[in-house]
Design a protein that fits this description.
Blueprint: E1 2-5, H1 8-19, E2 26-31, H2 38-48, E3 63-67, E4 73-78, H3 85-90, E5 102-107, H4 113-117, E6 139-149, E7 152-156
Parallel strand pairs: 2-5, 2-6, 4-5
Antiparallel strand pairs: 1-7, 3-4, 6-7
Helix pairs in contact: 1-2
Length: 182
């Protein structure tokens, strides 16, 4: 489903609504060019999970970890500076993917596409042993961002997560849901 955002507030609201539909162990892949709203979406997800501290892009740190009031973890990863799977495994990315006590938002997930296709195994690349995190049935929710106009972005989310969202078009008023976000 396509949702159009005309402001940071709209994108925050979409992130909040999406997070309310996610089960622990879910990874949200945030795909899109620089400046399309991926970090703002992650901030909205964090707010819906009860995180009140500032949520900023972890571009230089790669991972930000937040504990929710319910005891879950919210991991926000920015893989812009990661060259691929080997580099991601080098910093221990498997600890953050599909953990049953977390929800993970990953910016630039295409850099680790192979890790998102199937759960990690004990047999690492080049014969290296690596730990297997505790996994539940893995679920990756892809979210795509695209500049439509200077002040409008298209956010595409899977239909099963769009319950309560209102379809919009280029001439939309900027409202992204029916009713107020809860």
């Amino acid at each position: 489903m396509d949702i159009h955002s005309t402001s940071e507030r709209d994108t925050l609201a979409v992130g909040e609504a999406l997070a309310r539909r996610l089960a622990p162990g879910t990874v949200v892949g945030l795909y899109g060019d620089l400046g399309t709203g991926k970090t703002v979406m992650a901030r909205g997800m964090a707010r819906a999970l009860g995180i009140t501290e500032p949520v900023v892009s972890p571009t230089f740190m790669i991972v930000q970890e937040y504990r929710t009031p319910a005891g879950l973890w919210f991991y926000h990863l920015d893989l812009y500076r990661i060259d691929g799977v080997e580099a991601a495994l080098g910093f221990g990315i498997e600890e953050f993917l599909f953990a049953p006590d977390s929800i993970t938002a990953v910016e630039w997930p295409e850099r680790i596409a192979a890790l998102l296709e199937a759960p990690p195994t004990r047999e690492g690349q080049a014969g290296r042993e690596r730990p297997t995190p505790a996994l539940v049935l893995p679920r990756v929710v892809p979210v795509y961002f695209e500049h439509v106009e200077a002040d409008r972005r298209r956010i595409r989310i899977p239909a099963e997560f769009a319950v309560g969202f209102k379809r919009t078009d280029r001439k939309a008023s900027g409202r992204v849901f029916e009713g107020k976000p809860g």
